[in-house]
Design a protein that fits this description.
This protein has 182 residues and is mainly α.
Length: 182
């Protein structure tokens, strides 16, 4: 995570730079600075999702591939067994069983052992804190933003040079439509 976080920050900075004329800016000591918004975070996360997902969940790519097959089978209302998963991916049945056990330990799957061939059901992936803009807002919400504004004013920044919480939140600048992350 420590290795990937600077990469995510770099993507946020690039998004803010690319949208600098659409997003909020602040002037400090005659220098103008672009402010990254939640929309910039959303763009960065959407781009980095596949790279960050194994790190955030602490699972190898192969295990997550089996999990994605399980989600696909769940969505098509098919029974999820080791056999049906093996038919839908390139892994052997023993590898699939090994990966299924890891997914159960990670609390992403439930196993029904009442039948001879175990049945599995998907527990929706609990996205890590970085994956949810709502969670990001909880952590860096309006109260924290107002505290930051107060500190900026104490450092000599004029109030008319500051941005509003709505601008940071992305209500004014929204380059992406609402979409679900996969």
């Amino acid at each position: 995570m420590r290795r990937d976080f600077p990469k995510l920050l770099a993507l946020i900075k690039v998004s803010a730079y690319l949208h600098q004329y659409q997003g909020p800016r602040i002037i400090v000591d005659e220098g103008e600075y672009v402010i990254a918004t939640f929309a910039d975070y959303h763009i960065a996360y959407t781009l980095a999702n596949k790279v960050l997902r194994p790190t955030l969940l602490g699972l190898p790519k192969g295990v997550l591939k089996v999990y994605d097959v399980c989600k696909g089978l769940s969505g098509s209302r098919s029974e999820i067994t080791a056999k049906t998963i093996t038919e839908n991916c390139e892994y052997s049945q023993s590898t699939v069983r090994h990966y299924l056990n890891q997914l159960i330990r990670a609390r992403l799957l439930l196993r029904d052992e009442s039948q001879r061939e175990y049945r599995y059901s998907v527990i929706e992936e609990k996205k890590a804190a970085l994956s949810s803009i709502a969670r990001l807002e909880e952590r860096f919400g309006e109260k924290e933003f107002r505290n930051w504004l107060k500190s900026m004013l104490q450092n000599g920044i004029k109030s008319e040079e500051l941005v509003s919480y709505d601008e940071i939140k992305g209500n004014i600048y929204t380059p992406l439509p609402e979409c679900k992350l996969h």
